[in-house]
């Protein structure tokens, strides 16, 4: 079992290991004249570099994502790394925050360059996908997408390793990946980027305060049955979705928490309580976190966040 770091630690052991792997890979490439690339599951050296691939059949590319979630079609994008990464690639499912204004496609592209098949779905009622938006629908969308990528057809087409599926979510997407993992789909790890503990917030806010919070953050651009419907859905799920309660129910999944030191949208005090519960959960093989000098969008530190996500993935896949 991997020992758990203290709250907001830098995961130093993982980064040292990744740095050694990085140096060995660079040395091998220099000796080979960079004319070929090693067949590896993940390549940290490729996070922020473009490397030409010889043929149109082997170059990186993207496909449309279309899958069914409780009868509704969900749309998005599938990012495919080049063919040098072999037949068993990690698969990352990235979930945006509430309303979808804040995008993390840059991190998705970086993870794809490092060797991951990356899926970026748009939840029901958002960005053209069918159905109605609700917080519980987001969680179910994530559960259904895990099942989709673990189908034999998807595995064969995109050469993914079904034992290396990761969920990454920002803000409300952090609630999505945490509570999807609680529901039991077999994933290797979850990454929570400045996550929104909407369950705890719901229990602490008045209805008018929650209305202001959701409207101020973009409720009007989502296709819903109105604020009251979204509010009722939260009332039904808030006790279970509250992060400390969810963290206590997690089993056999690795966790990495990233927070913004100057985040004024999400309370870091709430996240400290959540992380303490996660650390005490003995069924989590690995639990680590890091705080960045940034606000809620993690702007200005996304290069480091991308590196840290890959470090986390390499550590838990060992």
Q: Can you characterise this structure?
A:
The chain has 318 residues and is α/β, with parallel strands linked by helices. The protein has helices at residues 12-31, 105-113, 135-149, 152-158, 172-182, 198-204, 207-216, 227-241, 243-249, 268-280, 302-316, and strands at residues 61-69, 72-80, 89-95, 117-122, 160-170, 189-193, 254-260, 287-292. The chain has one domain: Rossmann fold (3-Layer(aba) Sandwich), CATH 3.40.50.1820. Helix content is 41%, strand content 19%. The chain has an eight-stranded mixed sheet with strand order 1-2-4-3-5-6-7-8, sandwiched between helices. β5, α5 (172-182) and β6 (189-193) form a beta-alpha-beta unit. The longest helix is centred in the first third of the chain and has 20 residues, at 12-31. Mean pLDDT is 88; it is low at 1-38.
Keywords:
Rossmann fold; 11 helices; single chain; alpha/beta; disordered N terminus; 318 residues
Q: Given the C-alpha coordinates, what overall shape results? A: globular
**H-E string:** HEEEHEHHEHEHHHHEHEH
The amount of helix comes to 40-55%
Largest sheet: 8 strands, mixed
Tally of separate domains: 1
What is the mean predicted local confidence, pLDDT?
Answer: 88
Task: Bin the strand percentage.
Answer: 15-25%
How many E strands?
8
CATH homologous superfamily (4th level) name: Alpha/Beta hydrolase fold, catalytic domain
Task: Give the C-level CATH assignment.
Answer: Alpha Beta
Unreliable residue runs? 1-38
Shape-level CATH architecture: 3-Layer(aba) Sandwich
Helix tally? Answer: 11
CATH topology label: Rossmann fold
Helix-strand makeup class? alpha/beta
């Amino acid at each position: 079992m991997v020992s758990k770091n203290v709250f907001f630690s830098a995961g130093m052991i993982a980064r040292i290991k990744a740095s050694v792997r990085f140096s060995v890979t660079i040395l091998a490439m220099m000796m080979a004249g960079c004319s070929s690339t090693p067949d590896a599951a993940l390549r940290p050296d490729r996070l922020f570099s473009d490397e030409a691939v010889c043929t149109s059949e082997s170059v990186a590319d993207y496909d449309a994502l279309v899958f069914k979630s409780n009868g509704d079609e969900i749309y998005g994008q599938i990012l495919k790394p080049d063919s040098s990464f072999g037949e068993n690639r990690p698969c990352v499912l990235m979930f945006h925050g509430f309303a979808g204004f804040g995008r993390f496609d840059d991190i998705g592209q970086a993870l794809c360059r490092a060797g991951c098949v990356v899926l970026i779905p748009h939840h029901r009622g958002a960005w053209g996908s069918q159905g109605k938006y609700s917080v519980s629908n987001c969680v179910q969308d994530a559960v259904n997408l895990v099942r989709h990528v673990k189908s034999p057809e998807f595995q064969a087409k995109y050469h993914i390793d079904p034992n290396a599926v990761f969920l990454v979510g920002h803000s409300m997407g952090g609630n999505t990946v945490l509570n999807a993992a609680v529901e039991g789909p077999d994933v290797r790890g979850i990454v929570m980027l400045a996550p929104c503990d909407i369950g705890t917030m719901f229990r602490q806010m008045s209805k008018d305060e929650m209305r202001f919070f959701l409207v101020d953050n973009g409720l009007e651009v989502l296709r819903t049955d109105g604020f009251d419907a979204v509010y009722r859905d939260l009332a039904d799920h808030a006790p279970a979705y509250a992060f400390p309660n969810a963290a206590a129910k997690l089993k056999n999944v690795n966790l990495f928490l990233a927070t913004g030191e100057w985040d004024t949208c999400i309370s870091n005090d709430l996240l400290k309580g959540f992380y303490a519960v996660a650390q005490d959960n003995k069924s989590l093989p690995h639990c680590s976190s890091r705080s960045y000098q940034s606000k809620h969008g993690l702007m200005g530190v996304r290069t480091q966040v991308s590196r840290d996500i890959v470090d986390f993935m390499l550590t838990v896949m060992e």
